[in-house]
Design goal:
Distance between the termini of chain B: 39 Å
CATH topology of chain B: Rossmann fold
Largest interface: A-B, 32 and 45 residues
Number of helices of chain A: 17
Order of helices and strands of chain A: HHHHHHHHHEEEEEHHHHEHHHH
Number of strands of chain A: 6
Order of helices and strands of chain B: EEEHEEHEHHHHEHEHEEHH
Oligomer: heterodimer
Strand content of chain A: under 5%
Shape of chain A: globular
CATH superfamily of chain B: P-loop containing nucleotide triphosphate hydrolases
Number of helices of chain B: 10
Strand content of chain B: 15-25%
Number of domains of chain B: 1
CATH class of chain B: Alpha Beta
Helix content of chain A: over 70%
Strand order of the largest sheet of chain B: 6-7-8-3-9-10
Structural class of chain B: alpha/beta
Number of strands of chain B: 10
Shape of chain B: globular
Chain lengths: ~400, ~260
C-alpha cells in the first residue's frame, strides 16, 4: 500500500464509547421500566437519539471508529454487557427476556448467512430451532450425555434435517424454494402435534443446563452479591452470540463471503467462473441451520419446557422479519431488530394481543421508510486485508 | 484431421443446439487456432451468442462435440469448464454491481484461491496474503486499461461508468490467466470512441500476455476489421463463410445474409 494511505487521519474514538454506553443504558432502561408512560418516553428518546445520530454523522463516525479499533469495540461491549447484567442481576423476567433476545439474534445471524449472503430464503428457521430443542429434550430424557454435547447435537440434528430438505430447495428457484421451506415449517408442527412419542401438543419437560459442573439452575454468589440463576443463561447466550457475530463477520470478509454474494447476485456469472452453486447454497444452509438448532437447544433448556406451539410458522416469520428489519445482510442489524421484535411486545402490554399486527405495521413502516433496514448493509471493502 | 490440428485450441464438430423445434446452432464445425483472434459475426439471431454460451457451459449441446485443447468438454458443467482455461465476458454486463471492483475481479481468479472454511476463517494471515496477491494483480491489469482505475479497486462496481465496468469485466476474465477468452459484444452500450479505446486496450493487453486466444462476437464491423485474424460468419445457426474479414465482407452470400436478397 502507498505510504499516504497509512498516514490517513484516523477518526476519533469517542463515538464508539458513546454508542456502546447509549446502547447499554437504552437496553437497561427498556428492560427495567414498567410504567407504560415512562416506557413510551424512553422509547421516544431512544428513537430520537438514533435518528439524530444517523442524521448528523454519528453512526458513520461510530462505524469508522469500530472498524479502526475492533479490539476496543469488543472490550467495550464486554464491559457494557457486564454492567447491564450487574444492574439487572435480580430481575428474573428481564434476564429471561435478554437471553431470549440473544437467542433470536443468533438464530437470525444464521438466517443472515442463508438469506442475506447466499440468497436462500428460509421460512422454517423456527422449525430448525425446534429440531434443536426437541433433540435436547429427547437426549435429556435418555440422560448420560454431557450438556455441551447435547447442545451441539441440537445443531447437528438441525443440519441433518436441513440436508434432507435441501434437495427440493435446490431444485426450485426463488419464491418456490421459499415455499418449500414454508411447507417444512408447517409439517414440523403437524408432525410433533400428532406424535405422542415427542410429547404431542403437551410438549416435553427438560432440565436446565449443566456445563462441566457449572449448574445453571443455581444463583451465582460472587463478591458477596447474589445474581439470579438466569444470569447464567444471559452469559452463555451472550458468549454464543458474540462467537456467532465474530464467525459471521469473518465469513463475510473472506472469499466464502464474496462467493456467497456472487451466487446470490448472479448464478450464471458465478458458475462460468467456476463456482458450484449447489455447494455454496448447501454450505450457507448448513451454517444457518446449525446456529438455529444450537440456539433452539439452549432455548429449550432455558425455558425447561417445549411444545410445538413454541416453534410455529409464525415464529419463523418473526425471525425473517428481524432479518429484514435489521437490514438484510448486515449482522449488526439483527441485534436492535431482535430487541424491538422480542422485547417490545412483552413490555408494551397493550400490544401483546396485537403482536402480529405490530410486526406487520413495523415491517411495512421500515420497508417504506428505510428499504435497506435499520442498519443497511455496507459494500464489502477488503482493503485492510489486501494491504496489510 | 489435417496437420493443422496440433495448433487447434478449440474445435466444434457437428455442434447442434436446439430450443424446441428451433435450431440455434446447426451442425456447426468451427476451429479456433492457438493465439488467434477469431471474429464471430452474423445477423441478429444467427447463433453467435449461443455458440459462446454452449462452449462456456451455460447451455448444453443437443448434439455434436466441443474439444478444448483436445479434451472433450461437451458434457462438462459450466463450473468445471473454467478449469480448462476458458473465461468470458457477457453481452449484458454481469458484474455484481453492489460488490466492490476487487470482489468482482477476484471471482475471475476463484479457482486459484483457497475456499476452505478453516483457511478463510481461522488462517486469516494466509487469506490476507491471497487477497494481497489478487489486489496486486488486479491493480496491474486495471492500470493497463485505465491508470485511474487501480485507485477505485475498493469502490462498488455500480459507481463506475459503462466503459470502466466493461474494463472491469475484461479484467475479471483475464485475471485467471485463461487460454481462451470469449468476448461477447465488447462494444455494446458504448460510444464509437469508447469502443475504439477498449479495442486498443484489448490489443495492448493481448500483446503483453503473449498469444492469448480470443473469440469475439461483435456487430461493430470496424472493430472486427481491426482486431480479428479471421472471421466466421453465421446465419440461422450455420456457418456460411469463413476467412479474412476483407474476403468475408466481399462475399456475396454474406452480403445477402446481412442485407437480404436484392
Amino acid at each position: 500500500m502507498t505510504p499516504s494511505s497509512r498516514t490517513l487521519a484516523r477518526g476519533p474514538v469517542w463515538p464508539l464509547f458513546v454508542a456502546v454506553a447509549f446502547a447499554a443504558v437504552a437496553l437497561t432502561a427498556l428492560v427495567l421500566i414498567e410504567n407504560q408512560k415512562l416506557l413510551g418516553a424512553a422509547l421516544a428518546i431512544t428513537a430520537a437519539f438514533c435518528f439524530c445520530a444517523a442524521r448528523f454523522g454519528g453512526v458513520a463516525a461510530t462505524e469508522v471508529a469500530a472498524s479502526e479499533n475492533p479490539w476496543l469495540l469488543r472490550g467495550l461491549i464486554t464491559v457494557a454487557s457486564l454492567a447491564v447484567i450487574f444492574v439487572l442481576r435480580d430481575d428474573n423476567f428481564g434476564l429471561l427476556m435478554l437471553a431470549t433476545v440473544l437467542i433470536y439474534a443468533t438464530i437470525c445471524l444464521g438466517l443472515t448467512v442463508q438469506m442475506g449472503y447466499a440468497g436462500l430464503t428460509n421460512f422454517a428457521a423456527a422449525a430448525f430451532a425446534g429440531t434443536g430443542g426437541y433433540t435436547a429434550a429427547m437426549l435429556g430424557q435418555q440422560g448420560g450425555l454431557p450438556d455441551a454435547l447435547v447442545l451441539v447435537c441440537g445443531g447437528l440434528v438441525a443440519v441433518f434435517i436441513g440436508s434432507l430438505l435441501i434437495l427440493p430447495v435446490l431444485r426450485t428457484r426463488g419464491h418456490y424454494g421459499a415455499l418449500t421451506t414454508m411447507a417444512f415449517g408447517v409439517m414440523f408442527n403437524v408432525f410433533l402435534d400428532a406424535n405422542d412419542f415427542f410429547g404431542g401438543p403437551q410438549g416435553l419437560k427438560l432440565p436446565g443446563i449443566n456445563l462441566f459442573g457449572w449448574d445453571f439452575t443455581n444463583d451465582i454468589h460472587i463478591f458477596g452479591l447474589v445474581l439470579s440463576s438466569y444470569v447464567n443463561y444471559v452469559i452463555l447466550t451472550g458468549i454464543l452470540t458474540a462467537l456467532a457475530m465474530i464467525f459471521v463477520g469473518l465469513l463475510d470478509r473472506s472469499w466464502v463471503g464474496v462467493w456467497f454474494d456472487v451466487v446470490r447476485l448472479d448464478e450464471t456469472a458465478a458458475s462460468v467462473f467456476g463456482l458450484k452453486i449447489a455447494y455454496w447454497k448447501v454450505l450457507a444452509f448448513t451454517i444457518g441451520n446449525f446456529l438455529a438448532g444450537l440456539m433452539g437447544a439452549v432455548y429449550a433448556k432455558m425455558t425447561g419446557f417445549i411444545a410445538p406451539a413454541n416453534f410455529t410458522f409464525g415464529d419463523s416469520l418473526v425471525m425473517v422479519s428481524i432479518v429484514i428489519l435489521g437490514g438484510i445482510g448486515n449482522r449488526w442489524g439483527v441485534l436492535p431488530a431482535a430487541l424491538i421484535v422480542v422485547l417490545l411486545p412483552e413490555k408494551l402490554q397493550f400490544i401483546q394481543e396485537y403482536r402480529l399486527i405490530f410486526y406487520a405495521v413495523l415491517v411495512i413502516a421500515i420497508l417504506t421508510m428505510r428499504p435497506d433496514g435499520l442498519v443497511a448493509r455496507r459494500v464489502r471493502k477488503l482493503r485492510a486485508e489486501a494491504s496489510a | 484431421m489435417t496437420g493443422l490440428s496440433n495448433n487447434v485450441l478449440l474445435e466444434s464438430r457437428g455442434l447442434t443446439v436446439r430450443f424446441g423445434g428451433l435450431f440455434a446452432l446447426n451442425e456447426l464445425n468451427i476451429d479456433v487456432h492457438n493465439g488467434e483472434v477469431l471474429g464471430l459475426i452474423g445477423p441478429n439471431g444467427s447463433g453467435k451468442t449461443t455458440f459462446l454460451n454452449v462452449i462456456s457451459g451455460v447451455y448444453s449441446a443437443s448434439a455434436g462435440k466441443i474439444l478444448l485443447g483436445g479434451i472433450d468438454i461437451t458434457r462438462e458443467k459450466a463450473h468445471n469448464i473454467s478449469s480448462y482455461g476458458l473465461s468470458r465476458t457477457f453481452q449484458r454486463s454481469r458484474l455484481c454491481l453492489s460488490l466492490s471492483v476487487f470482489d468482482n475481479i477476484a471471482l475471475g481468479a476463484q479457482r486459484t484461491l483457497n475456499n476452505g472454511l478453516w483457511h478463510n476463517i481461522v488462517q486469516r494471515k494466509s487469506f490476507a496474503a491471497e487477497a494481497r496477491k489478487i489486489a496486486e494483480e488486479a491493480r496491474e491489469l486495471l492500470h493497463v486499461f485505465n491508470p485511474a482505475l487501480p485507485d477505485k479497486l475498493f469502490d462498488p462496481a455500480i459507481s463506475l461508468g459503462m466503459i470502466d465496468r466493461r474494463r472491469v469485466e475484461i479484467c475479471r476474465a483475464l485475471i485467471g490467466k485463461p487460454k481462451l477468452v470469449l468476448l461477447d459484444e465488447p462494444s455494446a452500450g458504448m460510444t464509437h470512441d469508447e469502443t475504439d479505446q477498449v479495442v486498443d486496450e484489448i490489443l495492448g493487453i493481448r500483446k503483453s500476455l503473449g498469444g492469448l486466444t480470443i473469440i469475439i462476437v461483435e456487430h461493430e464491423m470496424g472493430l472486427i476489421e481491426r482486431v480479428t485474424d479471421r472471421c466466421v460468419v453465421l446465419n440461422y445457426g450455420k456457418k456460411i463463410c469463413e476467412g479474412k474479414f476483407r474476403d468475408v465482407a466481399a462475399d456475396p452470400v454474406v452480403r445477402e445474409a446481412y442485407l437480404g436478397q436484392a
